[in-house]
Amino acid sequence: MKDEVTSTCQQCGASVYKQHVESGIARYEHGKLLCSHCVNEYEHAHDKDETVEEAYERIEFDNDDDRPSAPADLSSSRIHAASAATLGVAGAWDDAKFKRSLLPNASGASRCRTFHCKLSEAAVEFLNNQINEWLDHNDKITIKFSNSTIGNFEGKHTEPNLIVTVFY
Prior knowledge:
Blueprint: E1 5-8, E2 15-17, H1 18-23, E3 27-29, E4 32-34, H2 36-46, H3 50-55, H4 84-87, E5 112-118, H5 121-137, E6 145-153, E7 159-167
């Protein structure tokens, strides 16, 4: 006998079978029926590991004070274009503006730097040289881990780019 569909997940639209609800791998959360995948996402989003949160120190900025900050204004009037001048270019990288000190012997990263290039052999070679030159010029940097992905960058044309984020 085939499994009978009781309903669909109200989060993603997947089929939810009667046996899944009975066994508890699919269930109702706040009146919404969730499939097993959405239940896992819900549980992951609502788990709080306080020891991890306490392990990180608060980052302070120049304008920090003891007053609670107002909610961020995310209206379109507050969104401005980014340019090479505002983002910095490869030769203009300056760590002097950051307050948090580098922690070369610590297990966690205290800063990150993102590099990107178009998807061509010459561009990837240039990216490698750019990362290596940056490391050669910054002796105090110890890389903790890195991440890479492919994503679109917008310019004159939207093109896929290799994006490498180095955490140090």
